[in-house]
Specification:
Blueprint: E1 2-4, H1 7-19, E2 24-29, H2 35-47, E3 50-55, H3 65-70, H4 75-83, E4 89-91, H5 95-98, H6 116-120, H7 124-139, E5 143-147, H8 151-163, E6 169-173, H9 193-199, H10 201-212, H11 218-229, E7 235-244, E8 260-268, E9 271-279
Parallel strand pairs: 1-4, 2-3, 2-5, 3-4, 5-6
Antiparallel strand pairs: 7-8, 8-9
Helix pairs in contact: 7-8, 10-11
Bound molecules: adenosine monophosphate (AMP).
Adenosine monophosphate (AMP) binds next to helix 2 and strand 5.
Length: 280
Amino acid sequence: MQIISSLSEISKQVDQIRSSGKTIGFVPTMGALHAGHLQLIRTAASQNSVVVCSIFVNPTQFNNAEDYRLYPRLLEEDARILEANKCSILFAPDATEMYPEPLVIQFNFGTLETVMEGKYRPGHFNGVATVVSKLFHLVNPHKAYFGQKDLQQYTIIRQMVNDLNFNLKLVCHPIVREPDGLAMSSRNRRLSAAERQVATNLYRALLLAQDLLPAYEINYIKKAVADFLQPYNNIKLEYLEVVNLKSLQPLTQRTGEEGVALCIAAFIGEVRLIDNIIIQ
Ligand code: AMP
């Protein structure tokens, strides 16, 4: 596996790969790799000749300085894991080379970003769209792999790819969970043992909402989920939303057979986690 940090070098390498007729599958990450990331890598390896994985803790997408400071950084360990998992190139740029000047342009995704993560993390999706478009230009992949865990991120990137004619195919990978249901996340490493135990209740809350959905009003479901989580004093619910799967707009009532997503965000102690379930 090659480890590349320079922007000109990654572009040179991917140009060579493309001109030899090979296909490139790209998995952008922020590192601290877990089995969820690895499933994206394996899927990419099964569908492309070459896998490029990027590791970059992108400063522009953090609206909380502490979250950025405490985000786990394990580059050497990650490199060993990638090497053993069919990754051909690890691209790990420096923030100073990615952002030599302060950013000027701004993305605006309209109502896609006025809800959920966009509402609670102002500026987050501007940072995500900026870094993902830079990475797409640098890596120039045939296919790029994202996780359903960050459903709003995937939806926003799909919009960006369509609106700006990025010449690549997006693949959305289902959520990979721990045996007790907790969605895998790099931030799970920051949970204490006690917090890790209660964190599984986020998924249980989603399952409760899923069970109630066919027969109850959405406001009732939101209250039931809040009541379910209320006894855990180290869980602070930020939102539970039932949204239209395409528009991500919150529903007050489920109408007909539209696809919906149940989305949750909560603090477990100091660590903010998100999860969702899609119902087609
Ligand atoms: P991150 O390093 O957290 O930015 O994640 C990199 C990519 O992996 C994103 O597209 C995430 O949605 C995806 N991902 C993270 N955790 C999971 C998971 N538990 N299951 C599936 N995909 C995931």
